[in-house]
Amino acid sequence: MKDKDVAQILRDKGLRVTPQRIAIYECLAGTTAHPTAETVYQQLHSKYPSMSLNTVYKTLLVLEAAGLIQRFTTADSVFRYDANPAEHVHAVCLKCGRVSDVPGDFGEELERLRAKAVGNSDYNIRYSTLLVYGLCPECKR
Amino acid sequence: MKDKDVAQILRDKGLRVTPQRIAIYECLAGTTAHPTAETVYQQLHSKYPSMSLNTVYKTLLVLEAAGLIQRFTTADSVFRYDANPAEHVHAVCLKCGRVSDVPGDFGEELERLRAKAVGNSDYNIRYSTLLVYGLCPECKR
DNA sequence: AAACAGCAGATAATCATTATCAGAAGCAAA
DNA sequence: TTTGCTTCTGATAATGATTATCTGCTGTTT
Fold this sequence. Notes:
The structure is a homodimer. Chain A is of the alpha+beta class. Helices cover 40% and strands 20% of the residues of chain A. The longest helix of chain A is centred in the last third of the chain and has 14 residues, at 107-120. Chain A starts with a helix and ends in a 6-residue tail after the last strand. The model of chain A has no long low-confidence stretch (mean pLDDT 89). The interface between A and B is large, with 42 and 42 residues. Strand 5 (124-135) of chain A pairs antiparallel with strand 5 of chain B, so a sheet runs across the interface.
């Protein structure tokens, strides 16, 4: 993904374009991992030594409010971020906390579940998330 | 649910029986809400004024380790607790944070999703949770 | 190029959760 | 019932992630 693309996306959302925002968004868009704010900060620190962790947090909030990324939690008390807007299934390692995408298209099944939940609930349902918990390949030894 | 029952459940798990543990477990077993540790503490404070929030946290950890309750997170950074061991669907209000059970039996759909995830993932999957996010009846005005 | 609004970075505050430790209580055996 | 050991509770403090504040700087528009 080119800088120009990210810049245009930000502009379209009415957001100012800054090097930090581009870097943070690209960091998320360029990985299939689901990094925490701390991880994003560490990965960008060598390239942008002056960028603070606080800025990472605030930028992630801005990007989430703009609908460019998603924030979610698993079982620990750390937020994780994902630039993939499509609904999908996350696998969470019970030991090391790593989060992976489960490959495959779950759109149909998720839509069916969603429809049933909408029918059974008095909530105004917007979206849904499915998390499966287990041991990742490394942690199962 | 009688005290004697809860006491027996605790004993069967090899746990000591204390008034605090009985009260906290009953508090969870007697509600369909999904209280936070703070909420449990407040609800029991009138009856057990000396019980500390710390004890609530530690007891909830013990009960979870024994498999009597479940701990989960939604979209905020607060843990919620549930005495219902059966897998089911939670509805989370995006505005007030309240969590409700979605009525209905989702066992078949969840099992199908689980099977597909197990087949597609290299994780050793233990259990899964489905959260649907939206506005609760009160917050949608 | 200038001026304004919004952003980045440093610092400190907040909040939920967990650690520590001394005293109290549950449990088993005598 | 009492003793003794072990575990639990409660008070206090520590931790760690996240957010608030404020000042100087930067992106944007004219």
